[in-house]
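User: Okay, second chain of the day. Same drill as before: sequence in, structure tokens out.
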Amino acid sequence: MNGTSCRRNTALGLLSGAIIACQIALMNAFSLIQWDHFASMIISLALLGFGAGGTVLTLFKRWLTDHQAFMIPLLMILCAFSMALAYPLSQTELIRFDSYLLLTGGTHILRFVITALLLFLPFFLGGLAIGLLFTVRVKSISTLYAFNMTGSGIGGILVLLLFSRFEPHHIPILLALIPLAAGLIYPKKRAWQLLYAAGGFTLLTILLVLFSFPEPFPSQFKGIRSALRLPEAQCVYKKPTPYGFLQIVKSPALRYAPGLSLQYRDSIPSRPVLFSNGHQRGPLTELPTKNSHHLYEWSTLKLPYTLRNPEKILILHAGTGDLISHALFHHPKEITACESNEGILLAINEFYQDNTPYTSPLVNVEISDAYTYLLTTKKTYDLIQLPILGTFGGTSGLDALEEHYSLTLEAFESMWRRLEPDGMISVSTWMDYPSRYPLRILTTFKELTHGNLSSHLAAIRNWNMITFLLKKSPLNPGEVQTIKTFSDSLDFDVVLLPTGHKSAPSYTHHQLQDSSFFHAIEAILGHDEDTFTKEYPFRIQPARENRPYFSQFLKPGRIHEIMDYLSRDALPFLELGYLILILTFIVVTLIAIFLIMVPLIFHQPDVYHSKWTLLYFSGLGLAFMFVEIVLIQRFILFFGNPLYAASAVISGILIFSGAGSYFSTHLESSRQTIRHVCAGISGLLLLLILGLTPFLKATIHYPFVLKIFISLLCIGPVAFLMGIPFPLGIKRLNQTNPVDISWAWGINGCLSVISSVLAAILAVEIGFMGVMIIAAMIYLGVGSVQTHP
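Assistant: Same drill. Structure tokens below.
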């Protein structure tokens, strides 16, 4: 490799790394000021810039290739310029949109479109530069694609390092320095003075924007914005972390008392509240003193402690430590607190100078996903307590697509095995309407006990929360009477008690707007549960490990019934997350089809675009992302941390794919070679479908360093092969129909964006393994389509 080739390949790697890093950084920034699903939607639209770059390259190929020596570095510099300005401009007063107000129409839809176009530009310019380089250097496609994939993998790691050092709104601007460097080191033969002048102007722009761009405003409907509007509210702590941007807000009006009895007469103390990416994570509490009383003693959360003071307690998703503080009040011998977000623990300890419930000598802290810990531990407990589920007053479904492995049936089965013979599981949910969270907990408990639920379960509620208590051994008469006495003393309503211990009506103290909640409970506990859950307008069956979406309740086929049941305007605020995903898929697919079809409509008379190109590169774009997304989900459980899983999988797949692409230099682009490679990919995917989850569970207790090695061992072979079909397909096009090369790049980019959205929908509907099976079938199809050039 000579010096010119080295500089060219390095520039390509830098540009590729910057683009994927910018994608992740923008999603993180928009997650802070909006919500995750709107962030995914707008970034998906922006990523169609790759497809648009292929379309423009196809239409203007002759002019662009004639001027490629000047255009490629210029496009890299322009990519840097637009990357520095896109996000800051989108947050100006005239352009900034609010996610919730999109549903009202008006100017916010126009602002949303303008924002999408601004973010579209860096991906369009970067994608056009990469596609043009692939087109003019097609004989080196294997090496170029290797640098493209490897650079992307390194970029995915780099941006995670930036998350812990810079605030989210500064990171996209800083990343603009990378494509600028790529454009400046790219080999230049003409007009180099103009390119360096453009580079200098871009550098000045980046520095000016970096030091003048103020912190953007979150949506007026986000928790952090509402908290800061309270009297005397101030943000007293800020910290960027890879897990999210953490903030602590203090105000005399910030009070938190879930499930509190109306009999409580003392004042409710104000406490600082921790926010992560603008979402409330809970109130902060100091280590309780001996003479203090605990607010939760007047709450439904005390239910498990009314039966006895458990000695060994496991608190899952311990968060800010509120439940730990309550557990310490009852003097256990040992508490295990499980929390996957290490940033929260660091923020709490820094804020209170290590005087927190986590610092008690009785508390053992496990930095891990709750389900991962349950699979690795051999300890047994007297009480396992989960956090409060749902949102006060109901949820808008914004967390519908979050994976909650600790709330799957398999996780509850693990909890059941980790209980002492008289152990208990306690979980509380906010009361929502129509009821979803409490009913899903109930169906999960019923399946967990194989229908033998009546003697093991109790539940009480106040006006806004219900607490369930599931005991491994049957509740005895004395325990039942204790629950009744406790409930009556604090005016709580008893919802469920073992058969034969019926209490007063469940609405004695707190009326509901109708009796549908109680009818639903009776149906679930009765013999017609299957019929009821099928006819109920929302999904309330237990979440499974293959489909761990506990908060996803919407049945797409029943939308019209739900709208009639509620009102035409209520549904978007009830199940917004999944609706946004479906809308994103429709919009992205329509735009992608348009971008793919434009070259067919406006092609020159002597240009022929083959059906093989469309099918082959569409299949590669779909299947590659399907595999990547499923593997990330599988390894979240293995590592016990979404951040580690995403880093290991994305970087592992891209770097190994880059190695596979480089290896393809030694392969012929024959039909037989491509068919064998695709068959090999399908075969390895089949092995992963059958054996990956059992293997990961068997090795889940291994040390972290060994887990990294295991993850690369699992990912490496299939990722290596997945890097081969694209360069082989491009080389084959160069032999049979060179005019299709730029079109193939656009098709692959468009379908990659579609597949990332489609994979999420399919995961909800058919599960992760179903998505992986489809990916294996697509690769088989890609191999077979080679017989029809």
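The two ends are 33 Å apart (CA to CA).

User: Thanks, on to the next one.
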